[in-house]
Write a structure and sequence with these properties.
globular, mainly alpha, two-stranded antiparallel ribbon
Length: 310
């Protein structure tokens, strides 16, 4: 039986208008991120080598794949190694990887939360200026504080601009903090750039700029979501981002979201509840079996946002 047409009532608009901060999504499945122990000692050179191997092998390629850029593999390490706090967080995560037993459920879950926080802080390296005495953030927090100026770097650095703008779009999707305008339109692409990639991010940027408590803006978000679906290209990152958008946008229409959405009512992929169930199941599956640690933790963060935004 097809769901009745969902009408935007006052409660629906109230749910759609809720906002969270990205830090709220670091607590995964009820397990808060453990604090990094304070230490006066410098991180050893051998640990630095381990961090670089982890970054080069897993995180940088995963972040580049997710944002469809090259900045993290080509420039990210030079900034990471100068960020004392982030280096210490990496060292603590590696220590936990080595010492927390696999049968310690609580320990494994808090490590998962720590990795989510570390991953996001590493993503944010593209928002910082490369100062010799440690890295000082230009912008912090949610998508309200967008990087609209590239004063610390060459404006010709295409990959950096892609990383910055697309990261802000991702943050907006996770937190429901609308961006000031479509950030994807601030990137000038070369003619050789894949049009599917350009169109996907342009529409994702349009979605991120939407105001879900404004009926006219909701229609624009619906159109952007439909356009994104047509440019997925069988790429994991786009499938995940599209599913995140569906979960956030369509989920607000159902009072029993997320716990009550446990099955589809029909096989009509145009039906809101069916669409929502498919997106929910996909993100939950990717959180455990995504191709990269980056994708898995971002899916965990998306799941954490569902109840916070409802």
């Amino acid at each position: 039986m097809r769901d009745p047409i969902v009408v935007y009532d006052l409660l629906t608009f109230a749910r759609a208008a809720r906002r969270i901060n990205i830090e709220d999504t670091f607590t995964l499945y009820g397990f808060p991120c453990p604090p990094v122990p304070k230490s006066e000692a410098l991180v050893s050179s051998s640990t630095i080598n381990e961090i670089q191997i982890l970054y080069d092998k897993d995180y940088a390629p995963g972040m580049d794949r997710f944002l469809e850029c090259t900045w993290y593999t080509t420039q990210g390490w030079a900034r990471l190694v100068k960020d004392t706090q982030l280096v210490e967080m990496f060292a603590y995560l590696i220590e936990r990887f080595k010492t927390v037993p696999s049968d310690d459920y609580n320990g494994m879950q808090t490590t998962r939360s720590l990795e989510a926080k570390l991953l996001w802080n590493t993503f944010c390296l593209c928002r910082t200026s490369p100062e010799a005495n440690g890295i000082k953030a230009e912008t912090e927090g949610t998508a309200q504080n967008e990087v609209n100026s590239d004063t610390s770097v060459s404006t010709d650095d295409q990959s950096l601009k892609e990383a910055q703008k697309r990261l802000n779009i991702l943050e907006s999707i996770l937190t429901a903090q609308p961006t000031e305008g479509n950030l994807a339109l601030q990137i000038n692409y070369p003619p050789s750039k894949s049009q599917y990639e350009v169109e996907f991010w342009r529409n994702a940027g349009q979605f991120a700029a939407g105001r879900p408590d404004d009926p006219a803006s909701v229609r624009d978000m619906d159109a952007a979501l439909a356009a994104c679906r047509g440019t997925l290209g069988m790429l994991e990152n786009r499938d995940v981002l599209y599913s995140m958008m569906v979960a956030r946008h369509v989920g607000a229409r159902f009072p029993d979201w997320p716990d009550g959405v446990t099955q589809a009512y029909n096989n009509d992929d145009g039906d809101d509840r069916t669409k929502l169930f498919v997106a929910k199941r996909f993100i939950e599956d990717e959180a455990g079996r995504g191709m990269t640690q980056v994708c898995q933790r971002l899916c965990d963060m998306s799941i954490a946002s569902w109840k916070l935004l409802q």
